[in-house]
């Protein structure tokens, strides 16, 4: 019996059609100015609940009005190009019709969270790294989304409600969840893996074929 299913966001249920990499451009501008940015600045961007402009100010990256407008325009274009995968909409609807609670768990910067919520308005349970201050594969983020869904991870037997997760990262969406008792599946949209689309995953899980990867 499956009680809840957790989905990763980017590369799993949504894609970015126009990548502009505004955060990378911001960090390059900072380094050009001589600002000392540690290698984990990307981690900071995904665990600090800051807008793009607040991020620049916090890191002491000075932006002229024209540069600020340029980078914000790049961010806006990337955000506007986010769209759900068609199989994600179908898969989530199928799960919900079967009474399975849905959650979304993702590493992402603050501006991207509202776009995920907008793309999937019928999904009410989320665990986003920028809101929680931790990233996958840290156990706390998986446990947080389980709390949001009102389910308990760790049940592996048919008599208990199982929690499953799928995403495009073996480390974050298969192995990480497995560490807290969530059955993790790896999605490989290239077609080279065991699961190449979300409807395949849906049929496997709803069909109680829960012999997937840990």
From TrEMBL:
Q: Which domain of life is it from?
A: Bacteria
Entry's InterPro entries? HAD-like_sf, HAD_sf, S-2-haloacid_dehalogenase
- Return one GO MF term: hydrolase activity
Q: Which UniProt keywords apply?
A: Hydrolase
Coiled-coil segments on the chain, per record: none
Q: What is this protein called?
A: Haloacid dehalogenase
């Amino acid at each position: 019996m499956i009680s809840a299913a957790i989905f990763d966001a980017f590369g799993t249920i949504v894609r970015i059609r126009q990548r502009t990499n505004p955060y990378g451009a911001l960090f390059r501008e900072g380094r050009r100015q001589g600002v000392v940015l540690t290698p984990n600045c990307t981690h900071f961007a995904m665990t600090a609940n800051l807008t793009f402009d607040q991020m620049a100010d916090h890191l002491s990256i000075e932006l002229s009005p024209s540069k600020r407008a340029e980078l914000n325009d790049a961010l806006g274009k990337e955000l506007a190009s986010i769209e759900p995968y068609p199989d994600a909409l179908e898969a989530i609807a199928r799960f919900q019709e079967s009474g399975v609670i849905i959650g979304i768990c993702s590493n992402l910067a603050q501006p991207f969270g509202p776009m995920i919520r907008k793309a999937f308005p019928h999904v009410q349970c989320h665990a986003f790294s920028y809101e929680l201050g931790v990233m996958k594969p840290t156990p706390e983020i998986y446990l947080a989304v389980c709390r949001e869904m009102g389910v308990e991870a760790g049940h592996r037997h048919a008599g208990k409600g199982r929690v499953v997760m799928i995403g495009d990262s073996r480390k974050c969406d298969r192995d990480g969840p497995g560490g807290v008792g969530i059955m993790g599946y790896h999605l490989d949209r290239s077609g080279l893996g065991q699961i190449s689309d979300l409807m395949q995953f849906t049929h496997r899980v709803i069909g109680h074929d829960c012999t997937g990867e840990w």
